[in-house]
Task: structure prediction
Amino acid sequence: MPNEESRRPHTGRRRNEEARRAILDAAVELIGRDEGPVTIDTIAAAAGVGKQTIYRWWPSKGAVLLEAMAERATADVPVTDTGSLAGDLDAFLLATFRSAGTGRTAPLLRMVMAEAQRDEQVAEVMRDFIAKRRAALRGVLERAGGRGEIRADADLDLMVDQAFGVLWYRILIGHAPLGENEARELGRSLVIQSRP
Amino acid sequence: MPNEESRRPHTGRRRNEEARRAILDAAVELIGRDEGPVTIDTIAAAAGVGKQTIYRWWPSKGAVLLEAMAERATADVPVTDTGSLAGDLDAFLLATFRSAGTGRTAPLLRMVMAEAQRDEQVAEVMRDFIAKRRAALRGVLERAGGRGEIRADADLDLMVDQAFGVLWYRILIGHAPLGENEARELGRSLVIQSRP
Amino acid sequence: MPNEESRRPHTGRRRNEEARRAILDAAVELIGRDEGPVTIDTIAAAAGVGKQTIYRWWPSKGAVLLEAMAERATADVPVTDTGSLAGDLDAFLLATFRSAGTGRTAPLLRMVMAEAQRDEQVAEVMRDFIAKRRAALRGVLERAGGRGEIRADADLDLMVDQAFGVLWYRILIGHAPLGENEARELGRSLVIQSRP
Amino acid sequence: MPNEESRRPHTGRRRNEEARRAILDAAVELIGRDEGPVTIDTIAAAAGVGKQTIYRWWPSKGAVLLEAMAERATADVPVTDTGSLAGDLDAFLLATFRSAGTGRTAPLLRMVMAEAQRDEQVAEVMRDFIAKRRAALRGVLERAGGRGEIRADADLDLMVDQAFGVLWYRILIGHAPLGENEARELGRSLVIQSRP
DNA sequence: CCCTAAACGAGACGGTACGTCCGGTCTTAAT
DNA sequence: ATTAAGACCGGACGTACCGTCTCGTTTAGGG
Result:
């Protein structure tokens, strides 16, 4: 690790961006295809990369998956302001469900969540990631509160967890779909329960 | 495999119920104590049992944990009828949170859920278990509907998933507590959103 | 598998010669000490090596022991030419008995022979090894035949098998010693029976 | 092992002798057929017998095989007196080779010898058995000595071990046949080397 | 234009857990 | 009381992954 002064700016070969991409893509691809176990070895082989190249940049398999997941999530779910709680929720939840419910992403999320249960390091980064997503949704609710759309004694954190809870619960168990209708219905139920 | 007539009733030694108990208890105990990894070997050793005795009756570690989990859940969460949606929900959610949020049970649930993401056999039994718990809560809501306490266009399945979603989401991420206050607040929000 | 041109010379870490030595030595040591069972696990532990490192290079425990045995045998029994059958036999048998009858080697030979009875792969390599040893002794006899020291109708293969038969029989049963006197007496009996 | 008097003729279910035969036959049969491993379980199953019935009468698998082997050996090799060393040796060795070289017996002998290398109890009984066979052959030689057919300084024990050594060596390695010609040639070589 | 340090693909390494097999003991109902 | 069936404890097997450690090669600065 370079020190803060960076006295010797750099010598030697730089990180290969292609390898990074190949690793993340191979990981997602393997999880999505669901053929056999997804291990560091299979990821490395699928990416045409040595194992050490993975361990040089990530501490564990969970970290790789986590980065792949985070990459997709931040790209897909920008927060928009439509002027009404109903509109904002709809936009947020539709984008979120579309991103998370997708064929390739859902298995990835399942894997990351499973990994976080075994690996405390992954769990920690996961909590950070989750905190950001929750803050985004809570921001939507707080803005609506500023507009007087939410009853004073509403538990915003609980509402946030109801939204993400439904999402994760259905992803992990797979007993119900995660389509646009479900996103809208969920938005509606949150609007109703928060009315002053 | 014995046929439905059970023509050949049984020969040979019977299953040792003490061993079964020791295995399930050891598994829960080890997960709860959180000292080192919980493996089939450590469970067998802690239960004073040969590994084969575990594999004779369960196909995998996940199946053992699942059975231990199911045992506790059915014992702890009977459905009661208080006459009102608010009362019924309170009773159900308080019992559920108390059971699931307990020191020993929460790590067990996390482990089982993680296992279900890797092992399709576990996932299948998990889905059965989850379906029963959801049916119980849905029963509470339907009874309230019969009393006219619920608006006609409410999505009962979504409400059920909001409740269990919050529960699992908080267990798996661990960002918020799962105490009596949270149970009550959750019940209240469900009552509000379902009012006609 | 490298072709004859060796187009791709080699990539990746090379076989660790120290590990190989440690494994073979540990195996012989454990058999010699006769404390508890000699298993792949105990060999690996004694050699400070992972089990997989053993299985990467040998197909079975028998193969490990066989290699250890072959190593010792070729080192210890060079063929010498004294000019007379009696002298050559004496030299060969003394060296052979000294090598095979040694404290550490005899238990090794017993183990290998036992293993060869269960494992056809070991048996095959064993037959190769045995064939070489038999050829060496037969060479001694043929050289004597060239000098006219052996009757025409002598069955050289039978004589060879008498020599090695006595050796193995006594090693396996342990009813008689395998010292210098026995080697000399055996040599004498072979000389006598082969006289023209 | 049932005593010779059968003092307590019967209580409870009676099948002992049949079971004993079935076990010994099944063991030999399984070893001879060479299909899959020969374990206590497979022997019990093939004999239509419970495992406990085997362990009631024999201390280990090796003991079963040993008894099967001993049964055949004593039946097949009576010592005869033809009046000459050459004749006696021929008779003894032909009978021995015929018995040991047989399709079903040779694999049995290999198995027993292998077992004796691992199990000291089997080794002990094996040494007894071997001692008897050696004594029988030594008796033949001593009788010839009494007739003046053997030189004074011949090492009778060595000659005995040469004979049995060839036999076992070829059985265990399988590099040469064990037919009538080999028996006769072996007898001839022993006669030659013992001539006064 | 070479030198040197880092990153790379390959793959062997020490280690842990897996799920299976087998040996020898114990328990059950039937005979 | 003995049997066949079969569950039990213990322990070795051979495999799969993990995360680390060499190898020899490739690549990008700095001299």
Remarks:
- The interface with chain D takes residues 110-111, 113-118, 123, 126-127, 130-131, 134, 154-155, 157-159, 161-162, 164-170, 172-176, 182, 185-186, 189-190, 192-193 of chain C (CB under 8 Å).
- Chain C has two domains: 17-57, 62-194.
- DSSP finds nine helices and no strands in chain C.
- Residues 9-14, 16, 37, 39-42, 51-52, 55, 60-61 of chain C lie near DNA strand F (CB under 10 Å from a C1').
